[in-house]
Write a structure and sequence with these properties.
The chain has four domains: about 120 residues, no CATH class; about 70 residues, no CATH class; about 55 residues, no CATH class; about 210 residues, Uracil-DNA Glycosylase, subunit E (3-Layer(aba) Sandwich), CATH 3.40.470. The chain is elongated and about 100 Å long. With about 475 residues, the protein is α/β, with parallel strands linked by helices. The protein is about 45% helix and about 10% strand. The structure holds uracil (URA). The site of uracil (URA) has 14 residues, from helix 15. One of its GO terms (molecular function) is deaminated base DNA N-glycosylase activity. It comes from Aminobacter aganoensis.
Length: about 475
């Protein structure tokens, strides 16, 4: 701008189009350096009109490594007003100091590296701490997030959200600009303010439950936790309101957690089971006429070796005339102790998701492909161990009988083990989920994931996305039942 030039001592004032106009910087730098314009003779500004710069000197080649350009593009996203001048100075110096970047103590190199690191950290934080809030429903469903980065990283960070949330319409609003994805293209728009984004939605509670569940009071390290989830982000995180309470209650929570730890079955349970062994053989001979009678028979099942370590058979439960049946893999620690399917952590997700879809758990029949808990003892704990094909096949005996008595309209296979047992063939759940397969006997089997899969995902964003997909599958089930 003319005014700025009048007061400036520098020979050139470069006006870049926006704070991350790295292409503009490259073009100006090429023109200036090939005309031997020294770093101290240039001022770098963002916005305003372009000033006239000399054309690049023909025949003068600028040698610069690809690595420097790639790293400089990251540093250009830093919010420090000196960044473009620093980049030019480093470009200038590398001509006479080709090994400049090997001098770790050089002040320019140190600043460059610190800025690069800060931008990368900010990008990482954005990936980790953006929280979308849902607005609208059906076709109008949109997800909007407000985020305040330290640097100009929106364009750098946005492709990650495209990959992670490809199927959602979303917008991320920041004080520097906004990004929008309409499931086809990514567009960048003007800066926004916090009030433009919704403050909360119904998924907040889900975030809080998730966080409270993965929070392990016995491993609490407040400093490490705060550096992982810096305080400045707390105000936009639904789960952050829990943190002070969780920290304060950590001792008590740790004690309760230890008390809740899975216990080994009572030492005498094997003796009790052994006592029923002859009865089991005899009972299996007669065809049960009701689910209760079948449950009674299964309580003494010895069709595979799993009975010997488990506390008890965990048979299916629900009305005899249920039209909808859910089949899981096998009982877990809690189920084994309580003798009921899906009452542990996976059961909590299951209950919540079917409830949200308008399915009343008491109206459906819930069972497992394998009816004894298979585990590996590890200290005091019992770690879930996947049933093998022989165990699944042995237990199919009971599942076939359950379905024969129930005659449901639809069976939902929760995960690959259930699908394999129901279809008698290996099933790739990730590829085939969300659809129903009709068996030769006319029974429709709907395929979806096992809810424990969601619990195993450590990244909250990804877990939330998986939970949303699971909920979508269950809504489809609900529609199929209504149709
Ligand atoms: N996982 C299952 O597959 N079934 C249960 O009952 C509990 C956890």
């Amino acid at each position: 701008m003319a005014g700025q030039r009048a007061f400036s001592l520098a020979a050139y004032a470069v006006q870049l189009a926006n704070p991350t106009d790295f292409d503009g910087w490259r073009d100006a730098a090429r023109r200036l350096i090939t005309n031997e314009v020294k770093p101290e003779d240039i001022e770098w500004h963002v916005g305003g009109d372009a000033t006239e710069l000399p054309a690049p000197t023909p025949g003068v080649e600028l040698r610069v490594s690809r690595e420097f350009i790639d790293r400089a593009a990251i540093v250009a996203c830093h919010s420090n007003g000196e960044r473009f001048a620093l980049l030019y100075r480093l470009l200038w110096r590398q001509r006479s100091e080709p090994h400049l970047f090997r001098i770790a103590s050089d002040p320019d190199v140190r600043r460059f590296e610190a800025m690069e690191k800060a931008v990368r950290r900010d990008e990482h934080n954005m990936h980790a701490f953006v929280r979308f809030r849902k607005i609208g429903d059906g076709d109008g469903e949109r997800f909007v997030a407000w985020f305040e980065p330290d640097h100009f990283i929106l364009e750098l960070a946005a492709p990650f959200f495209v990959r992670r949330f490809t199927g959602m319409h979303w917008a991320i609003l920041t004080p520097h600009g906004s990004a929008q994805w309409d499931r086809e293209k990514l567009a960048f728009g003007p800066a926004a303010s916090k009030e433009d984004a919704p403050a909360s939605d119904q998924s907040e509670e889900m975030w809080r439950t998730y966080f409270a569940n993965i929070f392990n009071p016995a491993r609490l390290k407040v400093k490490a936790m705060q550096s992982e989830m810096p305080k400045k982000y707390w105000r936009n995180l639904p789960e952050a309101s829990l943190i002070p309470g969780l920290i304060a209650g950590a001792d008590q929570a740790a004690r309760e957690m230890i008390a809740r730890m899975p216990t080994m079955p009572a030492p005498h349970h094997q003796a009790i089971q052994a006592k029923h062994w002859p009865a089991a053989e005899a009972a299996a001979e007669t065809e049960a006429q009701s689910i209760d009678a079948l449950r009674q028979q299964a309580s003494q099942c010895r069709r595979c070796a799993l009975w010997s370590e488990a506390t008890q058979t965990v048979f299916g439960e629900g009305p005899d005339d249920a039209e909808l049946v859910f089949v899981g893999e096998q009982p877990g620690d809690q189920e084994d102790l309580q003798g009921r399917p899906f009452v542990g952590p996976a059961g909590k997700i299951f209950d919540a998701v079917i409830g949200e879809a308008g399915i009343d758990r008491s109206s459906v029949y819930v069972t497992n492909a394998v009816k004894h808990f298979k585990f590996e003892p590890r200290g005091k704990r019992r770690i879930h161990s996947k049933p093998n094909a022989g165990e699944v096949q042995a237990c199919r005996w009971w599942l076939v009988k359950e379905l024969k008595l129930l005659k449901p309209k639809l069976v939902v296979a929760l995960g690959a083990t259930a699908a394999q047992s129901l279809l008698e063939a290996p099933v790739a759940i990730t590829r085939q989920r969300g659809q129903a397969i009709t068996r030769d006997d006319g029974l429709a089997v709907f395929l979806t994931i096992h809810p424990s899969y969601i619990l195993r995902i450590r990244d909250p964003q990804q877990a939330a996305a998986e939970r949303a997909r699971f909920a979508e599958d269950i809504r489809t089930v609900r529609q199929m039942m209504a149709g």
